Amino acid sequence: MIKAEIEKQVKQWQERLDIGDWSISIKLVDGTDVADDAYSTVHINNNQQEATITLAEGRSDGQQIVSIVHELVHVVLYPMWLLVKGSDNAQAYARAEEKAVRRLIDALCPE
After folding, report:
1. Which domain holds residue 99?
2. Strand-pair partners of 40
3. What CATH number is associated with residue 78?
4. Hey, which bits of the chain come out as E strands?
5. Mean pLDDT of the chain
6. What's the pLDDT score for residue 6?
7. Measured between alpha carbons, how far is 78 from 81 in angstroms, rounded to an integer?
8. What number of H helices and E strands is found in the chain?
9. Could you please report the per-residue DSSP string of 58-88?
10. What's the whole-model pTM score?
11. Which end of the chain has fewer beta carbons closer than 10 Å to its terminal beta carbon, N or C?
């Protein structure tokens, strides 16, 4: 999928997830440039309502859409992360959030 098509998908999913007022940018990278064993990551600036999704190139269109939606759901949930960030519960919350995001993706983007 070319960057223009990816950006179109991002806009459509932003509207579906009610985060259309956020500024979301896409950074396409070689698959080895994404953190850990992930296919995508998101960096969020909540104060500015901005996020950058880093997306591995070379995956199928369906896989890229799943990755986009996955990261956008993290944007939706980010205000809850701020409630526990820096607390003793932060790691447990991060694990629970990732599990919840994966379940939501299964429901939103059945393959």
Report:
1. 3-108
2. 55
3. 3.30.2010
4. 23-29, 40-45, 50-56
5. 91
6. 94
7. 5
8. 3, 3
9. SS-HHHHHHHHHHHHHHHHHHHHHHHHTTST
10. 0.92
11. C
